[in-house]
Write a structure and sequence with these properties.
6 helices; mainly alpha; 63% helix; Tetracycline Repressor, domain 2
Length: 141
């Protein structure tokens, strides 16, 4: 606590005025991390437009850029140090992940209503890429 307080430029007793114990402070930090992640994901998805592929890329890029340089916070966010009495961080985590889940659910619903729009793109495999050692797919005569 002292080291954290020193890093924040406050007295070592300041956190105790706002948080009953160390676990509550860590939970608040984790909750703030998830809240910030949810906000950034929401902004990125909105900016990506309606394309599912663009939105999925925005989710991945945002998550990776958010975690870069914040590994201690990310580890805290996903740590199982949160006690049953401190449910804020797990709730914030569920809220943060509701954002990308909604994009996926929306795409799933759209696919169910118009399956032809979601046909998988198949790349033709050239004969030079096929292995010479692979057995022939033709049926015996």
């Amino acid at each position: 606590m002292r080291e954290l307080s020193r890093g924040l430029g406050v007295s070592h007793t300041a956190p105790r005025r706002h948080f009953p114990d160390r676990a509550a402070l860590l939970d608040a930090l984790a909750q703030h991390g998830f809240d910030t992640l949810a906000l950034r994901l929401t902004e990125a998805i909105s900016a990506a437009g309606p394309s599912f592929e663009n939105r999925l890329r925005a989710i991945a890029h945002t998550y990776l850029s958010y975690t870069q340089g914040r590994m201690p916070l990310v580890e805290l966010m996903y740590a199982s140090k949160h006690g049953a009495e401190t449910l804020a961080a797990p709730g914030a985590g569920r809220a943060a992940y509701a954002v990308p889940y909604a994009v996926i659910e929306e795409a799933h619903t759209a696919r169910a209503s118009s399956p032809t729009d979601w046909a998988p793109r198949r790349r033709p495999v050239s004969s030079s890429r096929r292995s010479k050692a692979s057995p022939s797919c033709s049926a015996p005569a």
